[in-house]
Amino acid sequence: MTSISRFFLAVLAVLGSVPIAAAADTSAYRISPGDTVEIGITSIPGRTERAVVQMDGTIVLPDAGTVSVGGLTAPELQTRMQTILPTKIFHIRMPDGREQMTVVRPSDVTAVIAEYRPVYVTGDVLTPGQQAYRPLMTVRQAIAVAGGFSLLRARANQAGPDPTDLRRDYEMIWGEYTGAYFHSARLRAELDKQASFDAQPPQGSPLSPALAAGVAKAEADALKLSLENFQQEQSFVEKGVKDAAAQVEALLKREQDEAAGVKADEDDLEQVTRLFKAGNLTNNRLADVRRSVLLSSSRALETSVELMRTRRQQEDFARQLERNENQRRIGLLNELRDTEVRLADISARLRAVSQKLQPLGATAAPLSIAGETIKAQITIVRNVDGQWRKQASDEDAEVAPGDTIEVRFSNELESAAAQ
Q1: Cβ neighbour number for residue 126 with a 10 Å cutoff
Q2: For 389, which of 107, 153, 213, 402 is 20 to 30 Å away at the CA?
Q3: CB contact at 8 A, 219 and 199
Q4: Residue 411: count of CB within 10 angstroms of its CB
Q5: Pick from 287, 253, 291, 259: which is nearest to 273 by CA?
Q6: Angle at the Cα of 134 (from 46 to 112), degrees rounded to 5?
Q7: C-alpha distances in angstroms, 367 versus 173, 307, 355, 358, 416?
């Protein structure tokens, strides 16, 4: 994992640790800029005013002027209006055209939140954008109003390839992916010198179990043959190592015996030389002893040379064992690298075809890509205490006014990172 990936995972983990209420409690909801409040007086017919909360949290009423309502709950708004309006003088026009002043009682005042700030839906939905908020509104309802999940919102009305051809290509690419998937599993098992590997097909495969089992069996047979062949070759070299070790041991013993023979012949030559100088032996006897010393020395030298050659052969066999193992691992690692690159390429092609085949509508089930079943990842972005925070959510969570619902399809690894 790269340092950038680790950074993003850390940031996402911090964001995920910030608590956001899954359900929006409208009774405790505090009025914010963009909401619309409705103020009415029941004792004065037609005296109902709607006002949009401004950026500074105030509203403007014709008879009361500027009133601060930002941050109030609905009950608190009612209380404030019941406190302010009874202190004002209201003029009403009578049927005969005359104006009359009237007194407003607190019980005559009504104050409600008429319209909430909209919610926003973005990402992999058919029609992203803003929606009117309704109390107890859920993520599922917001996505349904947005047309449901879709990977083709920008191409809904465009002509494209025949779906039958796309489905054929989709299954063919899945066949390639399955073959590369089991080949990679076999290479990893061979690297670890394991006699078997997991023969379960990749997750989300639309291929028949019999086809996947056939591909897995072919790779299992290849694994068995490869391991047996390598073991036979190593056994042959190991036998050479053992034979060379036995020969070295025999040569060492012979070298000791011949060294003792040379020493004996040299002692004999020394004694014969003294006798020859004393005139007690003939020249022929001295020559015979000298030839014996020369022969025994030659045999000892030949044994030493053969011992050196056998030891070198023993070392060559040992190096051959190590060289065979290293060459095998290098070959397997190179093949595994190529297979992983191929898997990545097939995954990209599979993702492209699956997106072309992705149906429209809220009930659409995403197709499988890259050996995993993709899922809808939902994130709610909400302003909490003046700070925008993100929290993973599900379709049954209630939303609050002003929320942004982000929807995107992701595989299991990406979902775990986001959470």
Answers
A1: 20
A2: 153
A3: no
A4: 21
A5: 287
A6: 35
A7: 13, 70, 8, 7, 19
Strands (E), 18-57: 36-41, 48-52
The pair of structure tokens assigned to 290 is 């000298």
Cα gap 330→343, rounded to integer Å:
20
- Residue entry with tokens 């075809």: 353
Return phi, psi of residue 124, to 5°: -85, 65
Separation of alpha carbons 273 and 18, rounded Å: 105
Q: Is 302 helix (H, G, I), strand (E, B) or coil?
A: helix
> Is the per-residue pLDDT at 411 higher than 90?
no
pLDDT computed for residue 157 by the predictor: 42
The DSSP result for 360-411, as a single string, is PSTTPPPPEETTEE-EEEEEEEEEETTEEEEEEE-TTPBP-TT-EEEEEEE-
Sign of the CA dihedral with 119 first, then 16, 358, and 160 last? positive
pLDDT tens-digit map of 327-342: 989 999 999 999 999 9
Measured CA to CA, the distance from residue 166 to residue 354 in angstroms comes to 8
* Cβ count near 296 (within 10 Å): 19
Q: Which of 101, 145, 108 is closest to 125 using CA atoms? A: 145
Q: What's the one-letter identity of residue 358?
A: Q
**Which H helix or E strand runs over 115?**
strand 109-115
Please answer whether residues 196 and 220 qualify as being in contact, where contact means their C-beta atoms are separated by less than 8 angstroms: yes
Output the average pLDDT for the chain.
Answer: 80
Tell me, what's the pLDDT at 179? 92
Mean pLDDT across the stretch 106-121?
91
Span between the terminal Cα atoms of the chain, in Å: 17
Structure tokens at 50: 């709607």
Query: Based on C-alpha coordinates, what's the Rg of the chain?
Result: 46
User: Tell me, what's the pLDDT at 38?
Assistant: 93
- Which amino acid appears at position 331 of this protein? G
* C-alpha distance from residue 352 to each of 160, 180, 347, 363, 379 (Å): 13, 18, 9, 21, 24
- The alpha helices in 66-208, defined as continuous H runs, are 74-84, 139-145, 163-191
Query: How far is 323 from 97, CA to CA, in rounded Å?
Result: 112
Q: Which residue has the tokens 């064992």?
A: 321
Q: How far is CA 28 from CA 24, 123, 389, in A?
A: 9, 29, 19
Task: Report the residue count for the chain.
Answer: 419
Q: What is the pLDDT of residues 121-168, one digit of tens each?
A: 998 888 889 999 988 899 999 988 888 877 554 344 445 566 667 778
